[in-house]
Write a structure and sequence with these properties.
The protein has 223 residues and is of the alpha/beta class. The protein is 39% helix and 18% strand. Bound molecules: guanosine-5'-triphosphate, magnesium ion and zinc ion.
């Protein structure tokens, strides 16, 4: 009997939007605005960490936030109320990712003011947002302890496009079988050069280290 054949037929949809990403980075460079794209699974702690980070970064930088969701304005409201910084809620019309065309349009909504740092919270999704270059200067990817240390093996692209990784919800370690060493090993299989931080937004552990790192990043970019 003949073997079952597996054929991959893929449309490279990211190609369609690739030109906008470079255009965005060119504009950001000219304007001296650092765009940080935050991506991860739903519920892994993006909004909570963004609030913690902004509250520590806002004394040094003028910050704006683009919050993207399919619907609702819960996260934008939380960020606005929790930090006081200007926050715009973007709805993607059902799309589970943001394209660079969409991020170019979203960024234009903050055009009337100069920002040192714009934080973009991408749609909670560990798969397709990774396929779309939104023109960010760096991608911050979260992996929360409850998700498991194997995720970099199963969702490779997200960890490949990461520049910075925050392993979040460190305070939940006693109730989950998450090995920090395995997580690091699995991440390094995908991406040797990424900078890894361990954080808990509940206890504040590790957040200052990430704040320090981002402070240096943004200062260097806008000088
Ligand atoms: N124990 C613990 N819980 C956390 C931590 N960070 C976030 N959470 C909780 O995790 C849940 C989801 O957090 P969010 O910050 O809303 O997660 P998110 O990634 O923004 O979620 P989406 O925007 O829906 O993708 C909330 O109940 C938070 O209180 C943490 O460090 N420790
Ligand atoms: Mg959120
Ligand atoms: Zn999608």
């Amino acid at each position: 009997m003949s073997e079952v054949k597996i054929v991959e037929i893929k449309e490279d949809i990211s190609e369609r939007y690739a030109p906008y990403a470079e255009e965005i980075r060119k504009i950001l460079k000219e304007k001296k605005t650092y765009l940080l794209n935050v991506m991860s699974s739903p519920g892994s702690g993006k909004t909570t960490l963004i609030i913690e980070l902004i509250n520590k970064l806002k004394k040094d930088f003028h910050i704006g936030v683009l919050e993207t969701d399919i619907d609702g304005k819960e996260d934008a409201q939380r960020i606005h109320d929790g930090t006081g910084v200007r926050t715009i809620q973007i709805h993607t019309g059902g799309a589970c990712h943001l394209t660079s065309k969409m991020s170019l349009e979203a960024l234009s909504l903050l055009d009337d003011e100069h920002f040192d740092l714009i934080v973009l919270e991408n749609i909670g999704n560990l798969v397709c947002p990774a396929e779309f270059d939104v023109g960010a200067i760096k991608n911050l990817i979260l992996l929360s302890l409850p998700e498991g240390d194997d995720k970099p093996l199963k969702y490779p692209l997200m960890f490949e496009v990461a520049n910075i990784i925050a392993i979040t919800k460190l305070d939940t370690a006693p109730v989950f079988d998450f090995s920090k060493e395995k997580a690091i090993q699995n991440i390094k299989k995908r991406n040797e050069h990424v900078d890894i931080f361990f954080t808990s937004s509940k206890t504040g552990e590790g957040v200052d280290e990430l704040v320090k790192y981002l402070t240096n990043e943004v200062k260097e970019f806008i000088k």
